Amino acid sequence: MEPSEQAVQPPGRSENIRRGIYILPNLITAGSLFAGFYSMVATLNGNYASAAVWIFVAAICDGLDGKVARLTNTTSQFGVEFDSLADLVAFGVTPGLMMYAWALKPFGRLGWLAAFLFVVCGALRLARFNVQVSTVESKRFVGLPIPAAACMVASTVLLFTHFGWPSSYKKLAILVLIYLLAFLMVSSIKFYSFKDPELIKRQPFGFLVLAVVLLIIIAAEPAIMMFVIMLAYVLSGPVGWLVTWPRRRRLEKAIHKGHEEQQHYSGSL
């Protein structure tokens, strides 16, 4: 999730930290940070599959903290800042280190610079989100969320481990993947946020059946299905951008034509 899940306070409003902080949502955020840190420990020990799993654990905790804060009415600016810092570690530094140790070390300087590119683009993505949170559509994220980028990397590690693919494949694949994810994080391409209130309302019975079948498939082949799901989400943004591009072009032309007509009319007065 993004830092907005803990309700960003209006600019200029400060909190008195001496009055205390809310324990439950910040404890869950700390759990996300712990999972990210333990993933780095697993990476340093060469256990990359475990490191990837702990990134998913961090993502689950990150998705829970904001929801718990809203349900218990314990949102705070402190929680927002803590959540953002935890995201940078768990979904920026952690996957960057894992990618370097797992696949990019043979590239030398180019390898660690590519990993750093992922980290810095994730930081820029978080910073941009924090300043745009009150001005963008809640149903869409502008740019790929950093937790999704980290989970895409983690699912790739699990997929390669599952099939035992040779290291020559993973080196090239991860290098391409890093640049793609880094670009998508800082791009203006929109991604679905899953914050639509309609999702939690009554749905047709078939939706429940479909969800149960999906859970069974994921349980049967978790490495493959998690990769497929994350890849589908990562590609959903660019595909949606391409599909809506003709309509956006027509709209831009119409707006530009309207401005020209308005200026011509104003000049003729």
Principal-axis shape equals: globular
Q: How do the SSEs run, as a string of H and E?
A: HHHHEHHEHH
CATH class label: Mainly Alpha
Q: Which architecture does the CATH hierarchy give at level 2?
A: Up-down Bundle
Main sheet makeup: 2 strands, antiparallel
CATH level-3 fold name: Four Helix Bundle (Hemerythrin (Met), subunit A)
State the end-to-end CA separation.
53 Å
Which labels suit this protein?
Four Helix Bundle (Hemerythrin (Met), subunit A); 269 residues; globular; 8 helices
Describe it.
- The protein has helices at 23-44, 48-71, 77-104, 109-132, 146-163, 167-186, 205-220, 222-268; strands at residues 140-142, 190-192.
- It is mostly helical and 269 residues long.
- It has one domain (3-196): Four Helix Bundle (Hemerythrin (Met), subunit A) (Up-down Bundle).
- The relative contact order is 0.11.
Kindly summarize this structure in a few lines.
This protein is mainly alpha-helical and 269 residues long. The chain contains 8 helices and 2 strands, in the order ααααβααβαα. Helix 3 packs antiparallel against helix 4 (109-132) and helix 3 runs antiparallel to helix 6.
